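Hey team,

Filing this mostly as a record. A colleague (T.K.) asked me to run one chain through the structure pipeline before their review meeting, and I want the input and output archived in the tracker in case anyone asks later how it was produced. No errors, nothing strange. Just documentation.

Input sequence:
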Amino acid sequence: MSKYVPGLAVNLLKVTLLTLASLAILTIAVPRGECFQNTGAQITDQSDSILSCIVRKGDTLYDIAGYHQVSVRELMKVNNLSDSLIIPGQVLIIPEKPQGEGSLSRGDISREDLMLLARLIHAEARGESFEGQVAVGAVILNRLASPYFPKTIREVIYQKSSRVYQFSPVGDGSINLEPNEKAVLAAKQALQGADPTGGALFFYNPDISRDQWIRTLPVMTRIGNHVFASVTT
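Output structure:
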């Protein structure tokens, strides 16, 4: 029979609660996309250390690329990935960021256009994942390359059809909200060529949209609350 020691149970309870609290803090403190850092990995046949990370549950390639401010394309290239599928426990090498601003594969984009794109992303998808926000930005840029739409970011975003704006935030004024850092990073990723939609020209929330025509378009993918579609070829 065990012997009762006064105060022992209380002390053990305190230690347990402190341990659980510490674990909870650690869990909350690591934002999505940051993953667990591993700076001790070595490049084969070289002595220079490189930055790598271990994928956590819930991470996406777009989250990780956005957090480290590198392009998804470059992240896939250095890790020899043929698609964006990653799994928990996987170790990813983080490519070095180029000096200064990252190059934009969509051409020379002004700071004004970058922030306009970020404002639209923030207004349309601020409740979505980072990948979902990149996808919204990609739709705008896909329209630039399409013969059916205008040829500048501003013209695409402010385009009207039968006196109705193509994007509701322009009509209701929410496009004027200040974008957060996540939306700006998503805009940069889209401008660097990231496109998780696979070339979509439209997106909509099927739970909210009353447009019956857009529902007839071929669906490319669904990310979060948005369905991404294109025109019939």
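Quick notes for T.K.: DSSP finds eight helices and eight strands in the chain. The CA atoms of residues 34 and 67 lie 6 Å apart.
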